[in-house]
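WARN retry 2 of 3 for item q-0093 after timeout on previous attempt; input resubmitted unchanged.
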Amino acid sequence: MTVSIGDVVTGREIAVDPARMKTMAALLADPNPIHWDTRAVAELGLGEAPVNQGPLNMGYIQTMLAEWAGGRDRICSFRCRFLGNVFGGQTVRAGAEVTGIEDGPDGRLVQCEVWLDVDGAGRAMSGTATVVLKK
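OK item q-0093 returned
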């Protein structure tokens, strides 16, 4: 794969499904009701839709990177910052921009700025990642 500094990678659009959020809250044993109880969300003044879990939001970015790089094992490092909430029913898209490239023993190490954007609501996450691409 040919890659250059400045290349932009984007993933597919993902519709955030409240039913899946509720299942994930159960799997994570997440006690915070904002992930499944819309009354709790409304009481906090955040609207009427449940708030997506942070690990799911990070997973959207990591999935995009893995699909681009050729597998989850290709992600060498990942750091992110939460900038806003993602709510059930919203649509998100993960992206990355290549900021550095160096040759390593296992392939090309590619540094990226990464993000998760919410349609109509702006950036919900930003961060950095390094993936290894085969030579």
